[in-house]
Batch of 2 targets.
Target 1
Amino acid sequence: MAVLKILGKGAAAAVSSYKLILLIWVTTMVMVFMVALPLRSFLSNIFGNSMAVTRLSDGFDLGLAGDMGKPFVSLLSAVSMGGLLLLLAGFLLYTFFAGGLFASCASGWGRLKMSTFIRESARNFLPFLKIAVLMMLLIAAYTFFIVGIPIIVTMAISGGSKGSSNFIYLFYAIWALGMPVWLFVADASRRWVAATGSGNVFMALSAGFRALKERFWVSYGIVLVILILNASFVFLSIWFTGWSIPEKGGLIFLFFMATQALFIIKLFMKTWRYASVCALASQKK
Amino acid sequence: MKKIFFAVCLYLPVFLSGQLVVDTPLSARLTGYDIDVVLEPVSHIVKGDMTAWWVNNSEKPVVDAMMHMYLNAFSSNMSSFAKGGQWSPAGDEGWGWVKIRSIYDYKGNDLSDSMNFQSPDDGNTHDRTVLQILLPEPVLPGDTLRFSINFESKLPSPIDRTGYADDFHFVAQWFPKFGVYETAGMRQREADGWNCHQFHPNSEFYSNHSVYNVSVTMPEEYVAGSGGMLIEEIFPGDSLKKVVWRAEDIVDFAWTAWPEYKSVTRKWRGVDITLLTTDAGLKKADNQFAAVIYALEYLDERVGPYPWPHLTFVDPPMSGAGAGGMEYTTLFTSAGGGLVPSFLKLAEMTTIHEFGHAYFMGILASNEFEEPWIDEGMNSYWEQRIVDHHYGDGYGLIRLPFIKMSDSDQGRLGYITSPSRSISTNDLPSWLYPHGTYGMMSYDKAAAWLHTLEGLIGTETMDKLFREYYRRWAFRHPSGRDFISVVNDVVREEHGDRFGENMDWFFEQVLYGNEICDYRVAGVTSHKIKSYSGVVEGDSVTYTRSDRTSDTLYISRVSIERLGGVSLPAEVLIGFDDGKELLERWDGKESYKDYEYTGATRVIWVKLDPDDKIDIDVDRINNSWSSTQKFYASRRMTDKFVFLMQLMISMFTL
């Protein structure tokens, strides 16, 4: 019951932050288009007036790679390098915006002005970046211990012939069930920074772990619920994108709008998690 | 009388060898081997006795015998195989060899001093993979040469098709084995003689269909399999077991032993199929069996029957991966069954390919040394047909929402992307392909032009010619020219002179030539024809109005070009703005062709080779043109890319 109540409050807070979510959406879209539009021109140039382009209708036909010749290699490196750069830039951008979102959630639901949002984002950026890096290192170590070591041990015992036995799936499950803990700690730490204005990362992390310990099951429950919904949503979104093959200009535009709507919902779900963690902290007070 | 005597002598060993596996002999059975050996699992040595016999089916006496000593390729880093740079031993224990400890003929003559190593291919005196045995007296026509040999084979490590890794043993090319004695006329040969090549990094094998009786004694806990039919397992004590196999009419005998094998069996139309796999591979056993059965059904229907009642295939462990992807007719090895994700049909592709070799060089025993395209190219062609037929709705290799690839395109890709695709013809012996082009030429190019041949003559005719090829050449040794002869006969029978007197023109270009094939739509123009014409006369212009009342006539010109040296007939499909389509046929002989159309409609698109029949065309993007191209596909792809990147950024940040 407590979990549902907190989730309800978090959802309300996330909805009231819609302007901030739209700002993040627009910024992300512009950033991704900076890589995607040259790629589109590149593809159009390769195919020119050729009807072979229809072979890209329902997924990239790798059989065309040879016909594309050397431009395909350039395309591949542009996509992979562009993708990596986007991930890096996205990481920094989202860390930046998280500062504003947490400030918004921690201080007053959605009442933050846009200018205040940007200022708060800037103020919190460095401590948030440190927290994000530290938490990602912790998650990497956790992944190595929970999943990596069992895989290595199993492969060593079987001489490499047991790549993924049922035994290993158990560790995948344990890993997945442990993830809400780390996400809650990361969120609670960042809420602490946003609420106190302190830039001390280790005190923030300590506050995060303390918050988890104080109300473990509620804390764990809210993140787990959102995480499950998030994963299902991402799966369905990818399925929809993969199998949709709009044929004409109008339909392609509609498809684009639909994917962007899905992305806005995805952003809402992330904000929902932040807001729920903040709501839990404020309820505690 | 002399002929009857000759025939009796010729087939005497066949009758002597009896029938246990197949009802009647499938081949001439000119060679046979009775082998009784022990596997020493610690030293990785196989040693014991062998009786080997060969029938002189020629009409002349033969003064020597030639035998392959393949394992000696691993005995020195100066062997032609090792010099190819693909293998070096894993420490001092890694070397491999085969040694003849004693050899006698049927009269008891000791032939130990009559042996010498030959290097017929490259003159490398350090190579000891071909052994000549000078005989004390010639083998007369119809006579049988019989050797009693005591030999010892040390398996190499790391495994390169054959060898060991810890207690995993894959034992192939492991015993002294006769070359093929070819008579004049066989495979267009001018004079009788042995065909016995050295072991090269890229070469495979060539042997007579033989009868094998093989007994191997090994530790009791080992699970073993082979290309033979299991006759019995004897347990003589001392924690040992003796496995007895018999194989008939196969070109090679290999076996494997490993304590960790899991054995699964299925049956298909009287064929006992056994899979030896790993723990992880067990999960993919159903997929692997399905792949084998697809291949069996497909080839059985379109090429000819699979004649043996047994088939064993092996999915080796990671440590024995070097043994993967090889064929020994009734035994073959797959690869990666337990490790490759199921959406990627690589393991199935390998299984289907290696099984296919039961036909292409197992039954139709071509010379893999001299004409590798016949077995590898043909087999890749059939593998691609089977994989694309059974998986992924035409995209057999990968069929995912965002990415797809057919197996035939995978093969074609290897050819069209190779910068060396034109440096040699496709008919070279395996060891003479320059600049690492062996695989690309033998597998990829040959499969691509076989698909092209199918495109030209039709799938039905293609299947018919392979059935005829099987009918004429099963359990014999066909050459490339023999295959072409079948093509010419069947195509003429099916299509008359539609393709000319014969199909030699095709093979001269794709097999014996090195040019590329590239067709292109150079351009399309459409102009309105004015309803009047003007002519300058002195200082004035005289206009003449036509009978037409409006400017509705167009003249459209479609220009197509042949950029490469390979000239093949091609179809050109032309679309008009009223929805009508017109199919033109171009013989492709000139380097370009223009089509002109005058009428009320304009040409709005052109597809050269609309059904992608010419698989060997190195660039298909330039095969079409459309005036209405609005880049929908690239827009759609970009939109998907944008969304996926947005999702990834959101997912990978806390």
Note: Chain B touches chain A through 64 residues (CB under 8 Å).
Target 2
Amino acid sequence: MTKNNVLKKSIRWVCLIMGGILLMMSVGCKKDQKPADTPTEKNGYLIIDIAKEASSQAHTFETIQALMDSYAQAGVTEVCFEPIPDTYAVTESCQGAVVCDASIQSDHMHRTVHAVFDPNLVFIQAAKKLGMKVTVMYHPYEGGGSVTIPADAKAQFSMASVTGVGGTASFCAGEIAQSKTQLISSIQAENPKLIGKGTTSVLEVVFVDEAVQNRVSQHEIATIASDTNAEIKPILWCSSGNTNYERVSNPSFKVTTERRQITDANGNDLGEKSCRVLKIDISSYSSSKYYAVAFENGNNLYTLPFSMINIYDKSGTVISTTKAVYTRNPNSDALLNAQKVPNDYIWGTERMPIATTDSTSLSTFPAWGFEFQYGGIGSDWGDGWHNAYVYGIATGVQSSLCGNLCEGFESVREYWLGQVDRFYAKGADCVIISLQNCGGMVYNYTDFGYNYTYAKEFKQKYGIDILTENFDYMKLMEHRGSYFLEFLRSVDQIAEQNQKEWGIELFSSFEKPTLDDDLNGLCHFKMPKLVFDWQEAVRLCDTVLIGDYQYGTYDTTTAAAIRMFAVEQNKTVAIMAYSECGANTSYLESVWSDSYIHSVFIDSKDVYFATLNGTAK
Amino acid sequence: MRLKKFLCWMLVLIFVGSAWTSCSSEKESENNTTEQITEAVTGKDEDGMKYTMVSLTDSGLEISASFDVNGNICSLPYTRDDFAEVAETFAEMGISRVYAVTSRPGIVGSSSAPNQWNDPGDNASQTGASIIQSGDPNFEFVYACHKVGLEIIAVFKPYEGGGVSKGVDADLSNTLYYEEAMSEYWTGYDTFISSHPEMRLIRKSDPQEEAIVNDTITKIEAAFMLDAYSYKTWWRRNKTSPTINNWEVNKTPIKLYVSKNNVDYIEYPGSYEVKFTVENRKYLDENGWALFDGMSRCSVATIEGIEISSEYQCFALVMEDNTNRTIIAQSMIRAFNAKGEELPTTIGPYVRYKKGEYTIPKDFIWGDERTIAGSAPEALKYFESWGFDFDYCSTGVNHSLKFNNAYVYGVARGHFQYAKGTLCEVYPEVRQAWLDEVQSYLIMGYDGIEIRLQNHSFMISDYAYYGFNEPIIQKYIELYGQDPALSDTVSKEVAYRIALIRGDAFMEFCTAAAEMTHAAGKLFGFHMRSGMLDSEMDKVMNTTLHKCFDTSQPKFVIRDWKAVVDLCDTITIKECFANEYDGSLNRELTEYAQANGIKVWVSAYTQQTAYLDEDGVQVGECNSVFFNAVGKDENVDGIQLYEWDPTGVRFKYSFNKIQKEQNYIPREVNDK
């Protein structure tokens, strides 16, 4: 054994011991509470994203079986499939949709579906033929609608659509066509008096004019500051349909400095004191439905666009608006700089939207328009500060989350249950319920969840009218969570009837719920903004999957209470290893050393094979 | 609601009808368990819709239903709820077993039904929408049936491999695979063929034909039959055509049209002469085999003075008066080059069309068209723009002899290189692909597998020339010591031997499929027909509709039909009786099955033959006459209602047609 290896081994042991101590401390657990049968054998699940596979090439039965054969030959015995959402509801972009056009990448999905009918079924069958244990990760809130096409456009095989801000939210799950009234609705939809209407007079853009602190990663807080020395000259565009924006010639504008209390995208004060800001009032333009604003000196100014860009009417009343920090991204690079959308363009084939902090967005938005609300506050950490090249502003607000059905309706829960039951019928051994989704991306999440049934029940339960009175939003999240727990109870029954297993994906944020929209928070854009009795969920299920995103280093304190409780309950405890978060050999070795982890789910075959060989059963 | 309502009436049909029998039936004898039921028209339902109550016997016959998954999903955009509704209704009707004719992966083009990948807004086919909405329809249907406690058998049609034509300007981006044939595109193949087109039955190579296929055509002949001939109709009646005297020869001019690519036919741009002579000719069938011992008197129409260059890949013979012009077009319409050599050609007995559209509409989406027989006068209105469907229904004639009497025939240069969508079972890869499909149905949860040979993918008139794949030739040489590819023509004996070799390979698949099915603890079945019991070459190679070599069959020979039955737990007699059930046709088979504890079902054609034959007789089998007749056959356990269409769309069409023509009061369904 080399000195290095001895050193490494020593460090590993120290880490392991310290990790154990931290774990004990964090959960306030006595030593004798540790169950006798803590896991001694680990297993790894290779996560296969079926939508990505099915759209990466024109698959047939033969190629799918060959792919699974190759995994089996490489030693894979347990797989976790990320299924294609119901009726090909899209996730992050149109790329998962079924569009028939040989000139574009997403045509692969068409060819795969055309050839095998149901890629989910065929992947499960291929794995079962090889004797693999199959887990399916089901995302009930993944109902599509994350991206829009112009209101007058049509997308092939979009089985449901919802009128959104900026156009029509397409490629929603087919179920949504049957039950649009059962989407999670906004407070403005339930109480239209809250919508500010009027003729636009002044567009106000406010930039921070002093240094502010902002979280930029899990462990890092940065100071940001605008460069206000350069000349400030706004550029304004208008559009009636969120495409083909036209530049306004020489709009009048006025720059002033003042102090102002900054609020986040949900209207919560940031910091205790007011802040010096630069206010640009733009006027002398005709009223329009959509605006884009940029500044000649580019992206050297910081703003929280969701609260610091506003439109006023002549009386100074705020007109309700929605902001965008992403632009649409046409289906080929050749179209990025198009002056106008070509007449023969096939909508519904767009790629992942482009962040407006990317300079490409400046040449993209004029023809293609913006994706409003996409990506929530536009970043996984912090409060949503942006120094973007351009911002989109739409008059009006979103009336519902375009792809999130409301768990409070029995028919919705039955629909989800039907999906779970079908996964079992297709051959899945275990279904893990994951809350993560792209169907409810909004930055102003506290404006959603106001369905009339909830308003009525909340009034009965707490005596508060959530449509008109201030209240603790966490209470609404708990109320919604109680229905979700009902769904989980039904999943438990269905699993038992099928003599199969099920699991729940939990995040550490369940342990001490707060209104946190950071990456692992309950209110991040990918989460449905609810909370439930996680201990009850753990008692019911067979497997607990910890879904926290951890960058680089495995943190043994992550979801420690959940993991400890699950092990006590003799449940299987698994943890996610995200390749995009830097899951690597060292990360996985740390995971293996954690006696409160049975399994790891790895979302990359490269990481899986690079790390698991020889380290797990 | 529309669906529910229709199916509720089926409940009336099956069960209320049974109750009704107690007061209207007359027992044949005290000890006879069969009661004779008469048909009753009971009036109108609450919505004023007329219906006929078709009663069942009380002889213990079970009733099962079959459901054409493919036919339904291409007609309507099926959702999961729709599948559930179908299953629930079957369950409410008291049916305990359903046969699901599965939708073959790849979306195979078959028959004239539009079945292709289209956006729902295109209105041509709902298949894509159904698949996106409900996933694999084969899975969704078994899931729905099991939810209501139905037993469900997958009817697997290995030879339904597809193959449909598309006009030359068709958008092919929605296809998995396409190829050129007959100067246009052919597509709509199953997933395996789309990846392995070379594994289909291949045509016998003929370098001499290939060398002259594009020669300028200088003469065309059509030899119409004048002598009387006897034949059997597909509804099993003997007929004799009248003798046509020389003075009765129809000498009205035949018009010649030409086309570059089977659309936009124009009258031949030049003068030409049509002569009629009466000659004695050797009359040949579609495979080139002599039909009669001696010569036949023919009216030979000769078109001369023409020069049809290779620019024109197709021509059409048009007869506004088709009196006394019966012909086996495939062998007796011939085109010659200047040297007098006969060019290889293929006949289009059917014309493509879209009703009421005499020209192809702008932005037309191919796949939305239908076919109309050239023997229908309306065909004359459509062919110029739409062109022909070559070898559609093979010769286009269902009787024992393929004499046609059309107004227009399309003729294309050359032959199909492959037998459209028919795979060659002698390749192990083909058998394995079929086994994989069987396995997938078993994993989906089907309670059994039934093999049906019928298909729409071997619509080839001169079928004897297909099957010259290398492994077949090798096996032929091994068994018979000769290379069948070396002779210029294919004799009936050679075709029979090839059919035997193919049958042996198919039995390998069938045996493996039965083993796989039984290993899963499930039922295995086969669709039989009386022709399989024939052992003589001439009988088994009968091409009359519902015989073993008809246009719907893969045209191979199973040496021992008992070997098939021995593999089975259940068999279905899939033979159209044209409403005249005759148990003696399959007596040996049904007795053998019963003796071995194998359940026997008889398929009742409830919709596809719900029309009148040429003699004006109602041949549909959804009536008490047929049911009672089957009920008297003690070797039969049940009736399988053929491809029930719960939407009632086709059902209604068929019965309305009868009502109109015969003042027959049918069962009707409501519109939407």
Note: Confidence is low (pLDDT under 50) at residues 1-59, 646-672 of chain B.
